[in-house]
Amino acid sequence: MLKTVLSISGKPGLYKLISNSKNMVIVESLVDNKKIPIHARDKVVSLGDISIYTETDDVPLKDILISIKNKENGSKASINPNAKPEELKKYFLEILPDFDKDRVYPTDIKKIINWYNTLTEAAFDYEKEDETDKEAEEADKAE
After folding, report:
1. How many CA atoms lie within 13 A of 9 on its CB side?
2. Of 128, 118, 111, which is closest to residue 30 (Cα–Cα)?
3. Distance between CA 97 and CA 123 in Å, rounded?
4. Tell me, what DSSP letter sits at residue 32?
5. Is the pLDDT at 36 greater than 90, yes or no?
6. Class of residue 57 by CB neighbours under 10 A (exposed 0-12, middle 13-18, buried 19+)
7. Beta carbons within 8 Å of 71's beta carbon, 6+ residues apart
8. Domains and CATH numbers, the chain
9. DSSP code, position 31
10. Residue 5: burial class (beta carbons within 10 Å; 0-12, 13-18, 19+)
11. Single pTM value for the model
């Protein structure tokens, strides 16, 4: 389900993909539900494509968001995203104990916490499996 949630460089918040065409996509803000066009020149990243470095393997963002949700019992994060870098790292150690301290920066942690809070406020169900995710997974197994 996170495949349809987008982060757009230069624009605050998160956006849900509504429709796309050859040179433009229409997105809806998860914060205020306004629909806007995003052009091909804009840098767009799907949250479903993001993973976090650990000492062993990369962990998908979805798993980290679920860990935060479990820790916070479904409410907003108990830490302020603008907390000191040491506090952010200490909090993130509780979520993902083996995250790579050299490659995961406090700004990354801040962004993840902000994303989690935005998704929680919007009551967005990122745990639900997307049909396209299942189809892609089955296609990978078939090969």
Report:
1. 7
2. 118
3. 27
4. T
5. yes
6. exposed
7. 94, 95
8. 2-47 (2.30.30.730), 50-121 (1.10.10.1650)
9. T
10. buried
11. 0.84
Sheet strand arrangement including 5-8: 35-39, 24-29, 15-20, 5-8, 44-46
Task: Identify the residue whose tokens are 């479903």.
Answer: 48
Rounded CA separation 79/76 (Å): 9
Residues in the chain: 143
Rounded CA-CA distance 54/68 in Å is: 16
pLDDT tens for each residue of 119-140: 999 998 887 765 544 444 443 4
Asked if residue 18 lies in contact with residue 27, where contact means CB atoms within 8 angstroms, the answer is: yes
Q: Which tokens sit at 114?
A: 């902000």
- Beta carbons of 5 and 109 less than 8 angstroms apart: no
| CA–CA distance, 13 with 22 (Å, rounded to integer) | 24
Angle 17-23-27 (CA atoms, 0-180°, nearest 5)? 20
- pLDDT per position as a tens digit, 58-111: 999 999 999 999 999 999 999 999 999 999 999 999 999 999 999 999 999 999
Helix spans in the chain (H): 61-71, 85-95, 106-121, 131-142
